[in-house]
Amino acid sequence: MRSVLLSASIGLVVAITACQSGPPTTPEANILIGSDFPISGFFGDTVPAAQAIQLAVEQHPTIGRFRLGYWSLDDAVAGVATPEKGIQNVSQMIDDSRVLGVIGPWVSYMARDEIPETNGVPLALISPATTNSCLTRSVPACFDRADKLRPSGSNNFFRIAPPDLLQGMAMARYLTATLRNPLVAAINEWGDDGALYLDSFETELARNGGSLVFSEELAPGTTQFGDFLAEASRRGAQVVYALGSVDDQICVARRQMSADMLFAGTDGFTGSRDCLKQAGANANGMVGTRGDVDATLSTSAAAVKAVRDYHQRFPRTGMQGFFTFATYDCALILIDAIQRAVDANHGGIPTRQQVLDALAQTRGFVGATGTYTFNSSGDATTPLMTLYKVVDGKWVYQSRVDLSSGQG
Amino acid sequence: MTALEVAAEAHPDRAFEDLVAPLVPAAQRLAYGMLQNGHEAEDAVQEATFKAWRAFPRFREGSNARAWFLTIVANECRQRRRNRWWLIARQARPAAEEAAPTQLDEEAMDLRQALGKLPAQMKLAIVLRYYLDLPFDEVGRVLGVSEKAAKARVHRALVRLRVEVPEVNADA
Question: What domains can you pick out in chain B, each with its CATH number?
Answer without folding.
Answer: 1-92 (1.10.1740.10), 99-172 (1.10.10.10)
